[in-house]
Amino acid sequence: MTHEQTRPYGYGVIERDGCQVHFGPVPAGAGSAESARVGCLVIIDDAERWHTEFSASLRNRYGRVPRTGIPRITRFRPGQTRFTVVDPAGNSIIYIERGEPDFDYGGSRDLSGLARVLDNARILKDFKTDDRAAAKVLEVGLRRFAQTATAVERKRALAMLTEIYIAAGDSERVAGARGELAALESSEADPVNISTEPLDMPTPPLG
After folding, report:
1. Is residue 42 within 8 Å of residue 98, measured between CB atoms?
2. Which is nearest to 180 in space by CA: 164, 166, 167, 161?
3. Are 33 and 89 in contact (CB under 8 A)?
4. What is the pLDDT of residues 6-19, one digit of tens each?
5. Among 26, 96, 97, 199, which is least packed by CB within 10 angstroms?
6. Distance CA 96, CA 100 (A)
7. Which among 48, 8, 47 has a CA at the least distance from the CA of 25?
């Protein structure tokens, strides 16, 4: 922290590796920083290392790595190039690795049907860190392409949905997605095992 003031209004600055992030008051009438979508982008090198450091510090402070509530940090998968940290006031800072490749948002144009939906959901979940949008496109995609998608595509979509529901702590939807996946597995003569155990169910959000 390089600057802090409380009067006539709250204002602070933190700095790391030559990058300054300035924090000011939440816009009037916004309710909270998170609901007002207050935040910024920070370009970094080696996003995986930064995520590891943040996660270790959060675990040391709270006894766990918070994935829901405030504060929290989004998950990080191998190959990802960005993640988001939400601070105790609800400000969101998105850390993006320098040289992040361009993506075909909406899914690769070389794919079609549920395969393209899966690619779009992967981008939303792992690169835009938007689980809610990823879940929505998967739910719609499964309904739309249920009759034309391959069994493997349907299993992958259900497995991804299960992971998102687990991260959100939505036990009812977790059970529903796992039930659909089990039913699909049992109907296949040569089942393909796709893990749906990427995360433990999270503890309640921090108060």
Report:
1. no
2. 161
3. yes
4. 888 888 999 988 88
5. 199
6. 7
7. 8
Gap between the Cα atoms of 92 and 73, Å rounded = 10
Higher pLDDT: 204 or 6? It is 6
Helix axes 131-145, 151-168, angle to 10 degrees: 150
Region for 84 from its dihedrals, namely left if φ exceeds 0, alpha if ψ lies in -120 to 50, beta otherwise: beta
Q: What local confidence, expressed as pLDDT, does residue 204 receive?
A: 36
User: Helices (DSSP H) in the chain: which residue ranges?
Assistant: 47-62, 113-126, 131-145, 151-168, 171-186
pLDDT at residue number 149: 93
Question: Following DSSP, what letter does each residue of 115-156 receive, concatenated?
Answer: HHHHHHHHHHHHTS--HHHHHHHHHHHHHHHTTTS-HHHHHH
Q: Name the pTM for this structure.
A: 0.62
Q: Tell me if 92 sits within 8 A of 39, measured CB to CB.
A: yes
Please determine, for residue 117, whether its predicted confidence score (pLDDT) is greater than 90: yes
